[in-house]
What does this fold into?
Amino acid sequence: MKRTIRVIGMHCANCALNIEKGLRNMPGIKNSDVNFTTEKAHVEFDEKIVSERKLLEKIKELGYSGEFVVPSFDRERHIREREEKEVRRLLLISIVFALPAFVIGMFLMDFPLRGYVLLFLATPVQFIVGRRFYKSAWASLKQKTANMDTLIALGTSVAYFYSLYLVTQDVMGETYFETSAVLITFVILGKYLEARAKGRTSQAIRELIQLSPKHARIIANGKEKMILIDEVKTGDIILVRPGEQIPVDGVIISGDSSVDESMITGESIPAEKFRGSKVYGGTLNKHGLLKIKATRVGADSTLSKIIRLIEDAQMKKAPIQSYADTVSAYFVPAVILISLFAFCIWFFAFRQTLSFSLTIAVSVLVISCPCALGLATPTAMMVGIGKGARNGILIKGGEVLEKVNKMNAIVLDKTGTVTVGKPTVTDVLSFSSIGEGEVLSLAASIEKASEHPLADAIVEKAGQEKVRIYAVSKFRSVTGKGVKGVVKGKEILLGRPEWFGEIGGKVRSKVHKLESEGKTVVLLKSGKEFGALAVFDVVKPDSADAVARFKQMGLETYMITGDNERVAKAVAGNIGVDHYYAGVLPEDKSRFVEELKKKGKNVAMVGDGINDAPALALADVGIVMSSGTDIAMESGDIVLMKNSLMDVAKAINLSNATLGKIKQNMFWALIYNLLSIPIAAGALYSLGINLNPMIAGGAMALSSVSVVANSLLLNRAKI
It folds into this structure.
């Protein structure tokens, strides 16, 4: 069983690691992933061994609170606003007391009863505002771990209690009440800015949740009735007026309109819809009055699946994140040891004052920032995946980003990927006494029972020409060759020219001519009489441009098709791929991908997810051009909601941009800590550079905010 839990009370990435570790140690837990940025835990467990209540109890035992997630925009917004309001309240309290403490402590050395006034001002900040740090640090200590709150609690406590000792014992010396108060204020300010920025990283998914309509107007017993969206059932007839959102997925049974599907596909131009067209819940009906029959409702709707897919993707960690997690696990204990070591060196070896040595120790504790390291990957992933979703590109997690960055070959399935995927009959030929109309009639009769992609085109052409459709007996499909059956007492064969062995020169030359034009030819044989039909699938307008983009990216391009050599060559020449392979049957596609991988290629496979699902699964990166079907949504690592090959190039650009932003964040977080900790420890003291703990605290707060802000710049990236 899988459940998602909203975790309340996490203050840093180490909190998420501690919860993750605590849950995984429970019996019956198969896996747990906790994301500090989304503040959610995804838990997979055996409900026979551990109950849902036990999961929440464990989270409480770890020092946090949790609740099971119910998808609701209003609920999400309420929780975000409540948390932001609480941090803002603490920040105001902190500023009210810390600001006068800073002025008195730094500038008014002769202020009456200065020590006691500072004690009065610092105490509320230390124990009311700072309570959250003590609570979190204590919870971590009970689990024999440490987090960023441990460092804040330690650093400010050293400054506060040392100052308290000086004041109460009337000992001469410089107090640091203002230091502890300002430190906590800086940290809370950082948390407030971070919370606001983190809220923006998940903006895309909130926008999608907000799209979900709350009501639907159904027609029941001839009357209109407004009901809650949760009450709509499959098969209900729904009335949608101009300017209204379409509430659920369905099929138009009357009316025509243009529908804005940009929120699903990323396509800005409204799609023309008429009777029989599919529509998606959350999209906007622009003009006409529509009657829709509901086909998918609730959690089964396309919008719900997209939201679920994005949430799952944002929870999946990129492999690079494991490096950050490993560093974070040892970071806080290492910082505490460095702080203690720095104190001892300055106090015992260099014979500095207790006050100076404590200042060094506190600076080391508060300047270090494991949060920046913990936020580096998830914030960039959330922004990148959200940007993709707004453009109709669904990327399934961080591992996919890294695989895209390594790929050097791309395989394109011809039908439905390079071409439109809607073949039409362009030529009907007769090479004997039977007329062209009869050739079409016999072909349509036998194809009516077939599921081959060309069958629909032939049957549709027969309908347009209004030719007669005969009854068929003994129908059989011959894999990779064609179909056969008995019509009017005669056996009819319809399929690839290769199936028929040697054919006459006139037939062969005509077939070759049609195939050189990029058309697929099927031959019909009735006894000794022959006929032929040519079917053409139009190449998408952007296919050639997309292939050119792939080459600019350094990708080796391949096209595979079940068509013969001449058709494949014509299409390949049209779009400019490096290599093409003809006569590749559906079951051979995965074998082709495997061969490329054996040659050392990192392969992306692009298909429609229907007859190439095994090849997509075997490829390093499977990219699916979706029509909103379940199999397409599940098959690929990247799902494209718009049927455009250029979106493959956009998906690659976005993946590379997101991974690049992750690496920037990781570099900044590591460099910040590697440089700031030695400086705080006094490494540059001989040059006259020594950090005040207040400056150290401000730098720490700024480092986390800067990582989140840098991730948000992804929204401006051109793909």
